[in-house]
Amino acid sequence: MTCxxxxxxxxxxxxxxxxxxxxxxxxxxxxxxxxxxxFSFPKDDELHKQWMINIRRDNFVxxxxxxxxxxxxxxDVIEPPTPAGRRRLKKGAVPVLFxxxxxxxxxxxxxxxxxxxxxxxxxxxxxxVGLRYPPDHDYCSITEPAGLDMVMSLxxxxxxxxxxxxxxxxxxxxxxxxKFCLERFAGSDDDxxxxxxxASHAHLMAFWKQIEPATCRIIQVLQPIDEFFLFMNYxxxxxxxxxxxxxxKIHHSAVSRIINTWANFLYTVLGAVGIWLDKETIKSHMxxxxxxxxxxQIILDCTEIRCQTPSSLLLKSEVLSNxxxxxxxxxxxxxxxxxAVTFVxxxxxxxxxxxxxxxxxxxxxxxxxxxxxxxxxxxSVEDCVPCKVYKPTCLRQKAQLSEPEVRKTQSIAxxxxxxxxLIRRVKERKLFSTVVPVSLTGSINQLYAVACLLxxxxxxxxxxxxxxxx
Length: 470
Prior knowledge:
two-stranded antiparallel ribbon, rod-shaped, alpha+beta, 6-stranded mixed β-sheet, 10 strands
């Protein structure tokens, strides 16, 4: 049975009636409808049962249910209505017009396209006009594109992926360049040498691999390798802590903690490595130019680091140098004949003599009569070491040196000049080539020892070719 009714206009009722049609999926309401009638269920039991069967509401229980007039055939409704405007049904009339028996009727509420002008009416699919619910559609199905369209789509996707990869690389590059970190300078050995003192990025990473396992014990503000990079910047460039704070975008108090932490950490880690070599190891690496001095165990020399003048007169008198007109710290450093740093003393006040430093440094206990040391002519230590001492001949009261003495002085001077190169490498650290502030007095020993010990890791050997240098 198929029947269609003409469309009627719907408007809000004034009497506030709230009748609703009880037929499933029917949304007709008297509140917004003044022209559709609503009929109560008949009192006759058989007819009432037939209504329930037709509207498919078995076991339906509600107070005064209603069925709208849209579900009845036009001949079942008595026309005209009563003077009060009410319509009545003929005796024995039952609702028969429903969506499940192929009946369709216009939705009482206007659809979107009925409220908006549509310039092209041909775009509406005619069979669906008047249906409130469109037919089922499989939204999981994908329409296969044509062959050419598919190829063009794949090419376009590849171009998009390439563009995305390019943009990601640009973002990563911008992010790295905006940060002051080791990764930013990894491609330039000149920058690595300038900021850290290591000869190349490979030298730096080789050293990092040795100390990295122990860095897990450090409480970190930045990435461990970036904190190490910050410390090496401080050591190599002597930068102010506020400058480093701006470079690494952290608080200057965090910079101070990082410097102190890494000074103590490297002092402990590098100090745990035994740098003093036994006599057999020294002999196995002895350069040929030491033929006349083959028993030399170590070449020693003292160095001075200028410090800020303290306000206390007592402290000033202790750190005032005997050789220079300013306050200094003084330390003893030694290297093996083949160029390795094998001894570093603590720093002492500048007023102390070289002889007293040697006594207090602890190196005397490491020497034995089968060894020899090589020192400058100002070191008068023959009476306080248990071994032979090689040093240039001093004129003293002589007018001039004899020919053998001149040759001996020249040969020793050529051999011990490399310890001065070692000291120069340490002082290439700007922190030690400028005036050390009094505020660093508590950590200057650690910083100095670390700078000396790093010489064994950061660069090429001090003595590259003894034959050439000789």
